[in-house]
Amino acid sequence: MKLLDLAKNLNLQHLGEDVEVHRVAPLEQATTGDLSFIVDGKWLQHKSQASAFIVHTKLAPLIPPGQSCLISDHPPLDAARAGVLLGMTPFDLEPGIHPQALVHADARLGDRVRVGPGAHIARGVVVGDDCVIHAGAVLHTGTTLGARCIVQSNTVIGADGFGYEFVQGRHVKIPHFGGVTIGDDVEIGACTTIDRARFGNTTIGDGSKIDNLVQIAHNCHIGKGCVIVGQVGISGSCHIKDYAILAGQVGVVPHVTIGEGARIAASTGVAEDVPAGATWSGWWGQNHRDNKIQIVMMRKLPELLKKLKHLIDSEGKNSP
Amino acid sequence: MKLLDLAKNLNLQHLGEDVEVHRVAPLEQATTGDLSFIVDGKWLQHKSQASAFIVHTKLAPLIPPGQSCLISDHPPLDAARAGVLLGMTPFDLEPGIHPQALVHADARLGDRVRVGPGAHIARGVVVGDDCVIHAGAVLHTGTTLGARCIVQSNTVIGADGFGYEFVQGRHVKIPHFGGVTIGDDVEIGACTTIDRARFGNTTIGDGSKIDNLVQIAHNCHIGKGCVIVGQVGISGSCHIKDYAILAGQVGVVPHVTIGEGARIAASTGVAEDVPAGATWSGWWGQNHRDNKIQIVMMRKLPELLKKLKHLIDSEGKNSP
Amino acid sequence: MKLLDLAKNLNLQHLGEDVEVHRVAPLEQATTGDLSFIVDGKWLQHKSQASAFIVHTKLAPLIPPGQSCLISDHPPLDAARAGVLLGMTPFDLEPGIHPQALVHADARLGDRVRVGPGAHIARGVVVGDDCVIHAGAVLHTGTTLGARCIVQSNTVIGADGFGYEFVQGRHVKIPHFGGVTIGDDVEIGACTTIDRARFGNTTIGDGSKIDNLVQIAHNCHIGKGCVIVGQVGISGSCHIKDYAILAGQVGVVPHVTIGEGARIAASTGVAEDVPAGATWSGWWGQNHRDNKIQIVMMRKLPELLKKLKHLIDSEGKNSP
């Protein structure tokens, strides 16, 4: 397909020569005839073999003259659209319920739902229209999914929460009667676990995206449009408000509220409420700016203390 | 059901008006006709719509006069018992071996064992009476479970330990001949992995509770009544003694002993033996009290160093 | 079997009396008639009941006179070999494709491949000779495995990467057209997730070993002979060069390069490129030596600041 035709189809501005492209490829794997994409200034230096690039609008002034490009506000998305136009297909489950899926007769599945082999949808589970449940995922009784949700392989939704009462020297299991209620357009990664509530429901709002190997404990309430990256662990009864972002491996202690639009840096431990809009980091999480200053200071500590000692010594010599 | 009838059945003290309750619900989701429960003083301020509450004994003096309550030493447990009396049932596997479970003919299952769809119980595995093995869980050869154990969905018990010997430039796999021996009343969360020993057995003692996404490596020995919270990782050949508590995301390096009743705070890295009864925390784990003082001091460091410099300067001016 | 016969078969030096041994067992579980093995000096103090030991060459001078031993450069490996000679067998899948495996008709499996019950190998997947795919593992379309790979139970290879573009207030999913390409002799632990690339392939080089519950995001490139321990999380588009070692729970932010042979300590957060051969540690990862000095200094900080203040005070008194 000609680059100019792609530009028309994708409604993007075109620069340079009109070359032929056959598929989309990442910068370092692309060869002649490939279209690649550039989001970041430093990637401009990459000596890619690609014939053309989809480049972010802000980088347009830096493009060398003559280079074949499409200019886009969202290069990764337009690269994906170009991929489809070039005949590439994302791998996906084939339509329908796989014959080796384990779907209970009393589960309620919407229209155009896809279920992979070995996935188990238990008695009473409700799955909205156009959901995709991948191989080996388990949806326990009490789980409700809205429309257009994606559950990746081997994820478990609705297992018992981790709750015990210590009575006379042993941990007595607290039964869990609740469920998990998930909104529309939620995606949940592979090998992730979302536990059912004791009573009522663990809830996840519309449009939230959850990565692989994430733990969301019983009675958590995740808002709309949240982004929860791989290996995050959220303890019981936390509130994560709309559009909060938790980077990889963040841990949150029980009963904490993370405010709307807050951003938590990777590997941060959250041990208290986070205000809306705040950016936090640190092993013992705090305001990111303070944390960074302290880390820089700690790295200078050996030198600082040496200087201070020297200052005191020289003061001592000058003083009498 | 009348609150007074519940009080009699649960053998609890009753306060306030005798109202009708229909089900148990969490504070924020409860409406008229619901019974909720309160463990923590700050929850007393919660404006719940519930008609009645099960309140912890220590909070009884704070209950507003007239409020319908039951007084309990273990509110979550009694709430669960109330739920059963009100006709609620915890979701559980139906009795018996699911027709789509993958149980080897030479596995030995005790009485009243439940096995979910897609769960695999391999050749020679022994499962005690009243165990529940949820969907997609895998019990490899060499695994033995005591009575009344619960294994949540997609957990893997008895995979090979991660052991290699670096010989002439490559990592040579060390075969694992051992197994995993688990006591009575052990619960293991979803997507958790417990590896088999090289020789002998990885062991988990009676009554220990293990959460989701936990890694327990080969040849570990976990004592009785331990609590191991979500995403904890325990390296090979560690000893975790009876009643130790490891909070979420704790990591333990190989060959470490954590003493009886020790408590390790969330996200702590344990790089050496922990004494019995100790409380530890920190990225590089140490006594929790020391760690807290150092963190507070580090947060004051920018200000402290400024003050010190000022002190030195003013000393300098005064001295001659 | 006599220890002397084992020595001959394993081509190892023999010390002490020629005793009869029946099986291999770990130090603390061994009884009379067992062979155990010793790698570490402190294990020499262990009061094991074993009849004989395989001892590391460097510890040979410390062996008490008369003790029955075999001397080895690789005790764990030779213990495993001894196990086989004594008739022990590592647990493994039975040969062939399990009748309850879920293998797509259009997957291409090499010779002598073993596939466990409930494992799903999707359309178009290529699996090399002598691979072992354990129960419940999922290999999505786009996955290619070299020869002699082992995939432990419930691991997911080739799920969609976690990629969204924020457009007009919502996270729009970026489709993933790429795959996962894995070399020869790679082992992947249980409940691990390796995501497919957006375009092109996520790649893992020959001989790399990956533990349980590891997350490897889309478009990562892992070199040859790497060791990636349990619960490590590697974000999108990272390069991990040959023979790098990432200890347990390490986290790596997106677009980072970890140089050849670098070693990252447990629980380290890697937020920038790591030079080849470096050893790094810390919550905010840095050179391990610097990190250790700073941690020691931080632990002394309360005392140091007290001393400094005292020094200033006494200077003040002496000065006039």
Question: In a nutshell, what does this entry contain?
Answer:
The structure is a homotrimer of 320-residue chains. Chain A has 320 residues and is an alpha/beta fold.
Written account of the structure:
3 copies of one chain form a homotrimer. By secondary structure, chain A is α/β, with parallel strands linked by helices. Chain A folds into 2 domains: 3-85, Udp-n-acetylmuramoylalanyl-d-glutamate--2,6- Diaminopimelate Ligase, Chain: A, domain 1 (3-Layer(aba) Sandwich); 102-287, Hexapeptide repeat proteins (UDP N-Acetylglucosamine Acyltransferase, domain 1). Chain A is 16% helix and 28% strand. Chain A contains 3 helices and 34 strands. In chain A, the strands form 5 sheets. The first copy, chain A, has a 10-stranded mixed beta sheet, with helices on one face. In chain A, strands 6-9-12-15-20-23-26-29-32 form a 9-stranded parallel beta sheet, with no helix packed on it. An 8-stranded parallel beta sheet of chain A has the order 7-10-13-18-21-24-27-30, with no helix packed on it. Chain A starts with a helix and ends with a helix. Chains in contact: A-B, A-C, B-C. At the A-B interface, strand 15, strand 16, strand 17 and helix 3 of A face strand 2, helix 2 and helix 3 of B.
